[in-house]
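Quick start: what a row looks like.
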Amino acid sequence: MEIINWIILVAGFCLIPAGVLWLCKKVSFLGKIGPVMVLYALGIIIGNIGLMPEQMPAVQEILSNAMVPLAIPLMLFGCTFNMKGARSQILALVTGMVSVAAAVIIGFFIFGHNIPEGAKVGGMLTGVYTGGTINLAALKTMLGVHDETYILINSYDILVSFLYLSFLLAIGIKLFRKFLPNTLGDFTKEDEKAIRHEMDKENRKPFKSLFTRKGAAYLGRLLGLTILIVGISAGVALLLPESMFMTIFILMLTTLGIACSFIRKIHNMKYSYDIGMYFIYIFCIVVASMADLSKLDLAGGLGLMGYLLVAVFGSLMLQVIFAKIFKIDSDMMVIASVTFINSPPFVPMMAAAMKNKDVLIPGLTIGVIGYAAGNYLGFLMSQLLGLL
């Protein structure tokens, strides 16, 4: 029975995105919402109906940890790299970190004094919103934060991050493109139309040719190469201290993916981006299913919730202001914000939502720097807030 539950859970998480993609093509309303939002909603429902078997947490952990490492190289194989947008990338990195730090300090003055371990919470928020969950876990141990506080932050973070992504996908991307410069890639209108037409044409039936003997062999070679890259990256990361594993792992995945993109035979392999994106869709529904709404003590944790809202949406607002002042590209600003708030695994999803492959590498690069700096910034912030 246990094996059957494992099979059902894994198959469900892996096949539901296919059904959602089909529905989004058939139902115009769902198509406008987009598969990511639909998958998030389904994931939250699945995770909170209370009928899942005891193997659920293990399956969630395995799939959430496996999908992104597989997706990153696949989505990089077909990318073409240039130096356009380097100025925006550097400015987005610096202003993004400054925005997070400023928003955390502002939130501390509003809510921090009224919540348990307020200064430590501020440090953890700085770490997680410049790096990722790995930084949150590291800072919990480093600062000696209570388990209850850590669990609450994790639960609220998933909810607030979902609201943040919903805003960006619904209106944020379009709004910022009107308000801020949108020159990344420097395409003419004719070039942009042609590129979008080709992307739309491929996305109608991107996997059709894979359901043949030749297509299956092609898919096997593509996945084989990807697994090899994941294995090499993990092997190198394991040679270094455990605290550096995620930083080195993602850096190696990105580096090897970029290196392979310069090999013409790999660069020209069809559908590598689409297959990588499918892994991201699986990641989306799995992560959403990990949100435990029963642990959200809305009455007792309003101060903590308010702190997270200020940190997330306050940092976004400050980044928009900085982007306007320094003329940072709108898509670069958004991808930097997503990298900081949601961590690098969400970069491929947002790049696909914006239909802008040019931001994929900058987003991952900013994310790696954030992973590396998150623990230091979080610790320094906790010390600073402790003095206020």
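That is the whole record. Residues 147-179 form the longest helix (33 residues). Residues 194-199 have pLDDT under 50 and may be disordered.
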